[in-house]
Amino acid sequence: MSVLEQSTFFGGNDEISGDELGQLEVTNFTTDIDEALTPHFGWRGKATAAIGLALSPDNLRVDGGTFVVRGELELKDKRMPAVSIWPTANKDVVFQITFPRGDVFNFYQGGLCSNLVGNSMVPHVFFDASEGRGSRPLLAADPRLEGTEAGFCIRMVAQISGLSSASKGVIMRAAIMLFPSNVENVSEIEHSNKAGWPGLKIGEVFMPLGPAPTVKWRCPLLPFIKPRAQFEEDDVAPASDKLRSAIAAIMRSAKAHDGLKTGMEVLKKWELITANPRLMLDAEPNISWPDTTTQDAEDTSGKLIP
After folding, report:
1. For the segment 278-287, what is each residue's pLDDT rounded down to a tens digit?
2. Would you say residue 304 has pLDDT above 60?
3. What percent of the chain has pLDDT over 90?
4. Can you give the three-state secondary structure of the chain, one letter per residue?
5. What is the pLDDT of residues 86-133, one digit of tens each?
6. Per the domain annotation, does 301 fall within a domain?
7. How far apart are CA 273 and CA 216, in angstroms?
8. Is residue 8 part of a domain?
9. Is residue 207 part of a domain?
10. Out of 57-66, 204-213, 222-231, least confident range
11. For residues 216 and 176, what is the distance between their CA atoms, to the nearest angstrom?
12. Is the pTM of this model over 0.70?
């Protein structure tokens, strides 16, 4: 495992200005981020990753934070034989999934592994391949869908990409994982909330982690901040070292996904892990966020919001 280069991404001696923090203030980590990205950072709606930090009641500390994905993933529809997902499905049936916006994935359980997203939130259809190109989507009650009743759910598992560079900034590589059972059933299985829970990797998207700072403040991105009470003029925000530490805690929790080729392999591995939890992978990603705590001298002065 390599570490994101400190000299390239974590240099400088500046601090975030109050003006920048004012542009990053939000009341939620969903639509408010969209509204801040567009006017202040020139966002055009494509997939982007960010960090959201929730502040303490006095707005001087960070109480928690989350990884955030917004925008269009721009992935083409994925077609695959239904039997490759559900082993007892009709061999003539084809499953087609339309990838949702990044907005449907939330990471409130912590880290860079999203919560499970149920199939009702994911556009998908079934076709009978034996009918040829002009086949129409099968209705839910069609007997040819026997064997697919277990449903499915998906999640996103992100990690830092090797495409990251001084010119491009930090690039995230996010795998879309599909699990051959509905969200209620998968959620009940021990360890299924982890990034390494086995599934089918059905897509991958690369996106920037931002927004990029205008000053070198020993961090390659700016966090969105959600104050407990709205900032007023001359209010004091958390010191930069506290913001950097909170960002690092989220980014350093990344783990690798475990993508298998068929639903049969996935279900068998679930059985093995259930019988022997030590088989559950918790692998480190190829590239990790560095531990920058030693770089930060304690700074309790905070920053004035203009």
Report:
1. 999 889 999 9
2. no
3. 80
4. CEECCHHHHCCCCCCCCHHHHHHCECCCCCHHHHHHHHHHHCCCCECEEEEEEEECCCCCCEEEEEEEEECECCCCCEEEEHHHCCCCCCCCEEEEECCCCHHHCCCCCCCCECCCEEHHHCCEEEEEHHHCCCCCCCCCCCHHHCCCCCCCEEEEEEEECCCCECCCECEEEEEEEEECCCHHHHHCCCCCCCCCCCEEEEEEEEEEECCCCCCCCCCCCCCEEECCCCCCCCCEECCHHHHHHHHHHHHCCCCCCCEECCHHHHHHHHHHHHHCHHHCCCCCCCEECCCCHHHCCCCCCCEECC
5. 999 999 999 999 999 999 999 998 899 999 999 999 999 999 999 988
6. no
7. 45
8. yes
9. yes
10. 222-231
11. 33
12. yes
CA distance 74 to 46: 8
User: pLDDT tens across 120-178, in order?
Assistant: 999 999 999 999 887 899 999 999 999 999 999 999 999 999 999 999 999 999 999 99
Residue identified by tokens 């059972």 is 181
On whether the CB atoms of residues 272 and 279 are closer than 8 A, the answer is yes
Classify burial at 108, counting beta carbons within 10 Å of its beta carbon; exposed 0-12, middle 13-18, buried 19 or more.
Answer: exposed
Residue carrying structure tokens 């030693």:
294
User: What is the rounded distance in angstroms from the CA atom of residue 128 to the CA atom of residue 131?
Assistant: 6
Residue 288: half-sphere exposure toward Cβ, Cα within 13 Å: 15
Domain membership of residue 155 as a residue range: 2-292
Cα–Cα dist 267/179, whole Å: 9
Residue with tokens 């190109």: 133
Number of domains in the chain: 1
Q: Is residue 303 situated within a structural domain?
A: no
| pLDDT for the residue numbered 301 | 41
CA distance 136 to 301: 64
